[in-house]
Structure formats: C-alpha cells, structure tokens
Amino acid sequence: MLSIHDLTATAGETRILDGVDLDVPAGEVHVVMGPNGAGKSTLANVIAGRDGYEVTGTATLDGVDLLGLTPEERAVRGLFLAFQYPVEIPGVGNAAFLRTALNAHRAARGEPEVAAVDFLGLAREHMARLDIDPAFLSRAVNEGFSGGEKKRNEILQMSLLEPRLAVLDETDSGLDLDALRIVAAGIERLRTPERAMVVITHYPRLLDLVRPDRVHVLAAGRIVTSGGPELVATIEAEGFAPLVGSAVG
Amino acid sequence: MSEVIDELVVREYEFGFHSDIETERLRKGLDEDVVRAISARNDEPEWLLEWRLGALAHLRTMDEPRWSNVEFPPIDYQDMHYWAAPRPKGPAPASLDEVDPEIRATFDKLGIPLAEQERLSGVAVDAILDSVSVATTFKARLAEAGVVFCSFSEAVREHPDLVRRYLGSVVPPRDNFFAALNSAVFSDGSFCFVPAGVVCPMELSTYFRINAENTGQFERTLIIAEEGAKVSYLEGCTAPMRDENQLHAAVVELVALDDASIKYSTVQNWYPGDAEGRGGIYNFVTKRGRAGARAHISWTQVETGSAITWKYPSVILQGDDSVGEFYSVAVTTNRQQADTGTKMIHIGRNTSSTIISKGISAGRAQNTYRGLVKVLRSAEGARNHTQCDSLLIGSECGAHTFPYIEVKNDGAQVEHEASTSRVDEDQLFYCRQRGLSEEDATSMIVNGFCREVFDELPLEYAVEVQALMRLSLEGAVG
Questions:
Q1: C-beta atoms of B426 and A87 within 8 A
Q2: For the structural domain made of A2-248, what CATH number should be given?
C-alpha cells in the first residue's frame, strides 16, 4: 500500500525529514508519534503534496509514485489527509464542497456525478453513523466551527470519500473526551482490510480508543523506533527521551 | 504555487464573435446634425429633440472627468459613430417569428434564444443590438397586468407623457459629462412602467449587444414603479472582440414612488480587451434611483467585463423610511481597470442603506471601490452599513478603497468595514487535497467570497453568474 523510502524534505535551509522509511500494508493502522518539531506534520504534508518543500526519496501508493503527482491527483487516487488545522472557506457551503470533492473522486474513477438530492441522502447516512449534527451540511466549510466540529468534519469527509490511504495529522489534538470518542469511532469504523491509515499523534490517549497495528517514533526527521502497540505504554511511562536519545544525540 | 499564479494565460472571451448583419450607421462625429438625425430616425417629438440639443450645448461647456483611478488614452469623440442599427429587411417585425434570422442567431449564440425565452423561461427580454431594440418578448402578458415593457423609442411614441415626465428627473442631462453625452445621442434602450399597486408578474431583462465596429453604445433605461408597485429587472451585456476601444455611456434612471420596490441587477460582461490591454469596452455609466417614502431600491451588479468600468449606481433616499442597497462584485483580470461603487444620499428621516462590495483582482488589473455615504441634516435616524472586501490573486494586481462619508446629522449611524485578503494557499491546498483542481478550487473560493452578493441575484441567473465568474478567472491561476 504505502511505501516510503529514504524520504527527505527541506524547507529553505532546514532539513525537516532526513531519510524516512515507512511501509504501511493494506488493512493496517500505523501510529506515528514523536516530540514537537520531529517532522510529523511535514511528513503528512509531503505525502499529500503540499508546496514549499524540496523533496527527495520515494513515496508510492499501490506502486504509483506519489511525488510526481499534484495534490489533487494524489487525492483522487485515494490519498486523504485529515488536517491538523482544517481551513475555513467562507461562503462555500459544506454540502456543495463535499459534493464537489466526491464528484471529483468519482470523475477520476470514471463514475457519473452524484446529483444534489442523492448526495444529501448519502451525506445524512454518513453523518448519522458518525453521530454528526445534520446542520453541518448547511454551514460554510469549517466557518465558525469549534475545534471539535472541525475535526469531526474531517472524519465526515474521510468517511464520504472512502480513501485507500488516510493520513490523520493530529486529528485528536485539542479535543474533549466526547469529540475524541467520535473521532476514534470514525477511525475504527473506517478500518477495513482494503484501507490503510497513518495516525499522527502527539498524545497516547487516542490510543486507548484506537488500537494500532504498528507504532513508529519519529524524531529529528527519522523513524528511530518501530514496534507493536506495547510501544505506546513505554512512551507513556518514560516519554520520548530514551527512544530518541541517539537521534538527537 | 506563486509561480503558477504568475503564469498568466490569455483569458479567452467567449462572446467575442462578430455577426455579419447588414448595418446602417450615421457618419462619424458629434454635432447638431448627428443629434437631429438620431432624433429623426426615432420619429421623436420636438420637445425631445430640444432636450437632446440642450444636452449637447451643455456638453460643449464640460470637460471629460479624469478623477477616477483609471488610465486611458484621450478619446476622440469626433472619431466614432453615434448610431448604428441592423439594416431592416422590410417592415418592422410584428412578432418574433419575423425577426431577422441572423439577429436571432446572434442572440441564440449568446444563450439568449429569443423565441425559447418567450415560451419557456418566464423571463421577459428586450434585446438591443447596437443602437436599437430588436425584440421584446412577453409584451402581451405584461400588458394584461398593466405593465409596460418596451424599447425606449417605442415608449417615446406610445407613452410620451410618461417619458416626458420622468426622463432626466433622476439623472439630469447636466449631471456629468457622460450623462450629457448620453442625453444628446442616446439611441434606444429599455422602458418599464409598473402602475400603482401592481407587482410585475415576471422578471424583466434587457440584453445589450454591441456588434458594429467604431460605434459607441448610448442606451437609456428608465424604470418607473408607481406607489406600491414592485419590479425586478436584469440587464446583461456582451460585445465582439476588437482591437480598438469602444465607448459605452449609458444612463439608467429608476423612479420608485412611495412604497414601491425596484430591484435592478446587472451582469456586465462587455469585451474586456486582450491580455495586453488592447481593445475592450470603456464602460462609463451613470445609474441612479430616487426612492419615495418607504420605497426600496436595490442595485446588484456583477461586473466581469470591460477594459474600464467606471460606474456608481446610486440611490437618493428622498422619502422617509426609504431603503437603498448596493451589492457589487467586480472582477478585474489581465489589464482591466475598475473604479466602481455607489452613492447613498440620505435625505428623508429613518432612511437606511447597505453597501456590500466585493472586488476581485488578478493579473495586472486594478480594482477600486469608491463610495459616498452622504447624510443630510434632514435625515434624522439615518443608518448605513458599508462592507468592502477585496480579494487579490497573484502579486501584480491592486485593490484600492476610497470611502467618502459626509454626515450632517448627529443622530446618524454610519458603519464602514473593509478588508483585503489573498486567495489563501492553505485554502487552495485544502481544496486540492479533497480532489479539486487548482482552478476549481480558486473558483469555489472566489464564489464563496462573493456569496453575499450572489444571494441577491434573481434565482434564474445565479447559476449563470457562477459559470461566468469561473470563465472570467480562467487563466488567472494555473
């Protein structure tokens, strides 16, 4: 599924990613943890194709080279990024935005567009399952949304777009416990044998609710340790310092 | 990203074709003989000829204004035609079926199929090609309701008393240089009269098309809503692509008597010139409404075309409790220039006005909002809210805001908000990560920025306008 090899990213003079290797097979949920400034968000941005980085190395999704594609080409091939800070787009209705996004994905797959009426039915189904207020649809994209509402909107989009690979960039940050549960339930619900997920987080508490297959620790732009779910307990007990010592050394 | 934005592609103008319609024109130049000839062509009464000649005499004492924030080379007013018309192929058409097929084809191409418009969409259209009205649809049904909707020249013939009473009552011939010019040489235009207590049963619209070359278009629109009457009116405009600049100096007068309501919407898409600024329409227009007690006048404009747009649709809030509104989207790309806004003149007590202006600038375009809110001593309890937002796409364009506020009454409440922003990289990346192309994403963000104004447009045109916006910005990104 996702295969990253020797990935580097430089912004200006600063090397943020310094040779990342990461393989995430279909059906698995991998967690990437690490201290502030380790390059976690940069990893997500580079995978999704954000401007502003000089990138070397390889990143493929189902064997397709991602780095040569525009952000929208990556998106319609099944890459979804749940943003750490979802952007407000004033005046653009959430329903229209979601439908346009869905239709862009469908067009890329050679499927016909979803009509407005059918879309509303579909969106309501997803919202009911995710316990999201139907009023979301009639509001402008993220405009005036609380932090928790924005993150739930990301999960709703992920649910509707049914990506092959979902990268969640600190989707759990800034959430109260109720919102965290909704986000976690959304992740669990979308966990299927065909889909891979990379959950980037700073806090272990999400991992009480989402059980990862693998845990990676990113520090100073590299994966310094990988392990099973038990690694979370170690981090909780001892912090990142013992794990990243050699990397920041 | 930024280099993508900078890479400006020539914007294609969809309506740039020229129709091969046989055209009759008066010789070039502006003088008494030309004014007399125009008047004679329309079989006008003596008083109207005198009115025109008075305007011409006054025009000669005036200089072309140069205070706006736009640049253009001197205009040679003697080097253009002031009247052009499709040459009639026989007597005037009695019905749409008799309209010259080539003319009908022209309007079909523009998406204004006159015949279908009549049967299907329930919008009455007056189609104006160069200087004359070629067809007005739905006349009979409107007449049943007592509504008069016809070309201006027909109104002069059929309803001379109404025309004489109201012509120049809101925009006098001496108002400004271009109003005087228009008053002297206006050729045709639209006329609408809605009698007291009548709600006009359908949307009215006029479609203006410049076709002939080296010809100025000077149309005159007069809309009268008597006491308690209500009407919604929309004008659309296009022109062929030509290397020379063409002058369009129109005058629109709205008369809303007590308790009347007039909603006037404009979708202006005259040819904007090419990427280097060659050609395009100079759109120098005077639009003004006078509101009686409790009357309501609302201007909505979407300005995407013209090399230069210079207009300030205004409301004189004369009657107590009258309401004036101005909702504007002005898009400038390539070398386009716009200096547009409004004037709200508060005279009556408890008058209120709302101004919402959205300026979008891309390429090397300059976009200026210029607005006046004037509260006279008599306007006890007057209120105004103004919001001016500018959106920049790329780094070589400009946005300017010149608000003028003159308040003579201490009890007035005047609010002004302004913002300038860029199409945000974060917004673009967010949309693109959801699968939207850069162009779709930009168009969606820009449409969202204009939402408050688009919401004011008649429903029939909302979709069309979003498509037009998209077209206008094509090439501005990516």
A1: yes
A2: 3.40.50.300
